[in-house]
């Protein structure tokens, strides 16, 4: 098995490289800067291949011979599509770590037919906010039966963002441009359904705002649901005014200790058409580290276990319960409860 990592010299990319080396999976590191790529490779012995995202042929050539591609280079709305196209051209499965809701819908709309024709699986949003939230939403929806309303709330605290994440967070799309699924399609909307949300690890309700979360783009593709929306816990007013110059002045990302201190919680509530309420909860630490674990395991499963060709939501590509059980081995806690 050979996995290509696009953006391997970036913050998340290096964590993916470390995870591949830890698991003994052969890798090819792809990017533009030879020195940064060699530094990312370190003593792993991984091959380095140089390719520019603006040169489609060189990018496809860099992926040649790889069984799957893990793409960690954002903003995905600007940089993602050429990588998907090159992976398909190289007959390689594709996984990425995007959290960009609009981009996820774009991947489904643009690449489904090409992926089917090439016989490869394309699975976006395999990160700490995308994969687990899709899996737990599927398990909640399965328990609730036909779902009238499904709400997903995400809460980060005690950590910090990488520069790459901040560059990918377009406040206009993340908040005002958030999509809600209803009437068999996605649409922008006004006020969120909740002003506060009680998370399992919180002592009191937490203030929330509507947000463009990844599962709103993926879950309705495999869970029959009347309406679905996403909520983000905490205050993110600073994101609305932060400038590119300020982002450039920040550290590349949290150090190891800061990563370990960061906590994240996903809380899902489904109202069934029969009146039942089902809740699902996922909690973990070190979101960036868990993203590397999730992306590498997803690529590995596509290669060894297979999935149907096309663009797939996480729960369409993988069994949600066994994937969540795998994450439990890495300190992620999850449960589904009725009532």
Descriptive overview:
It holds the Pfam family Sacchrp_dh_NADP. The protein has 339 residues and is α/β, with parallel strands linked by helices. The protein folds into 2 domains: 2-127 and 291-318, Rossmann fold (3-Layer(aba) Sandwich), CATH 3.40.50; 131-286 and 321-338, Dihydrodipicolinate Reductase, domain 2, CATH 3.30.360.10. 39% of the residues lie in helices and 26% in strands. Helix 1 (11-22) links the parallel strand 1 (2-6) and strand 2. It is globular, with a radius of gyration of 19 Å.
Question: Which SSEs are present, and which pair or pack?
Answer:
Blueprint: E1 2-6, H1 11-22, E2 26-31, H2 34-41, E3 47-50, H3 56-63, E4 68-71, H4 76-89, E5 93-96, H5 101-118, E6 121-123, H6 131-144, E7 147-157, H7 163-168, H8 171-176, E8 179-182, E9 185-188, E10 196-197, E11 206-210, H9 215-218, E12 225-233, H10 244-249, H11 256-261, E13 263-272, E14 277-285, H12 287-304, E15 310-311, H13 314-317, H14 320-328, E16 333-338
Parallel strand pairs: 1-2, 1-4, 2-3, 4-5, 5-6, 6-15, 7-12
Antiparallel strand pairs: 7-13, 8-9, 8-12, 10-11, 11-12, 13-14, 14-16
Helix pairs in contact: 1-12, 3-4, 4-5, 6-14
